[in-house]
Design goal:
By secondary structure, this protein is an alpha+beta fold. The chain has a single domain, classed as Beta-lactamase. It contains ten helices and nine strands. It is globular, with a radius of gyration of 24 Å.
Length: 314
């Protein structure tokens, strides 16, 4: 009888500890507070979406916890220059396996030149030689379309899509070169979804496509200075590896934001825009809201006390 009484008492104490919020584990406390932040981010994104005269899809992935936010994440959007992320990934993958070298030289040809080629258009055909890395820099930093097309020929459109298939990205497709208006008129756009572009970037970050050294160089290349909408209102010294894309009535931007200790992927895609500037502003607003949350998470204690550099703790 005495043994039974002791067992009942122990069970009662255990249940009380479980149900008492004052004895909840720090991780449980942290998760509840973080849920509130995610809910507020969700509300802000929905408000931005409601005021946008067009269609929008969003995917955000916390690369630390795996928490995610989605809005119309499986809708297929034209990618414009954002598809160059996939071209760059395949270039680095082939360099990793020895199929090519980033230092391989290429001689610029007149037949390479297409509109929106601010660097290639100024080089001397038949004379100027550049490396594949040079071409990649042109493709990412200034979105040079001629450089992109040379790289597509070099790595192979089929190989880019095979790499995407290996990651299960069946709705992300490189289907034409840059400025191929005939292909575009036939409906052969370069496409993806917010979820799939997020998955591609997360896979690259987690080393599922490239080795550690190649991955680091890939994201350094993708961080090359450019005018895009994810970084527009964020701190200038924050590393952001992204590639925007624009077409008539379309604005996109996808990338990784390297908040110290709490990096994340963010992909925002818009279409059917009545005013393209509104699409750009919507991307920047969502990016700023996301950064504000992740920045706090990166600097906060488990109880939500944010400690900024240089501040004393009282």
């Amino acid at each position: 009888m005495k043994l039974l009484f002791c067992c009942v008492a122990l069970i009662s104490i255990s249940l009380a500890q479980t149900s008492n919020p004052q004895t909840a584990s720090p991780s449980a406390i942290t998760q509840e507070k973080q849920k509130v932040l995610w809910q507020k981010l969700e509300a802000n994104v929905h408000e931005i979406d409601q005021h946008l005269d067009g269609a929008m899809g969003v995917a955000i992935d916390d690369l630390v916890t795996g928490d995610q936010f989605f809005l119309h994440e499986n809708e297929v959007f034209a990618q414009a220059s954002s598809i160059k992320i996939a071209v760059l990934a395949e270039l680095y993958r082939q360099a990793q396996v020895g199929k090519l070298k980033l230092t391989d030289l290429y001689t610029v040809q007149t037949s390479d030149l297409v509109p929106d080629s601010n660097i290639m258009g100024g080089l001397t055909p038949g004379v100027t030689r550049v490396t594949l890395r040079d071409l990649a820099t042109m493709m990412i930093a200034v979105s040079d379309n001629s450089a992109t097309n040379v790289l597509i020929d070099r790595v192979g459109m089929g190989n880019v899509n095979a790499m995407l298939d290996s990651l299960g990205l069946s709705h992300t497709r490189l289907r034409r070169k840059m400025m191929d208006l005939d292909a575009a008129k036939q409906g052969r756009e370069n496409i993806s979804t917010p979820r799939e572009m997020m998955t591609l970037l997360a896979a690259l970050y987690r080393g599922k496509v490239l080795s550690k050294d190649m991955e680091s160089d890939f994201f350094t290349m993708l961080s090359t200075g450019k005018d895009s909408w994810i970084p527009r209102d964020l701190p200038a010294d924050l590393k952001i590896a992204d590639k925007p894309g624009e077409l008539e009535a379309v604005r996109n931007d996808s990338g990784v934001v390297f908040v110290e200790g709490h990096p994340y992927v963010i992909c925002v895609m818009t279409a059917f825009l009545r005013n393209e500037r509104d699409g750009e502003e919507a991307i920047s607003k969502i990016s700023l809201d996301a950064w504000r949350m992740f920045d706090r998470l990166s600097r906060a204690t488990e109880y939500g006390r944010v400690v900024s550099p240089g501040n004393g703790v009282r």
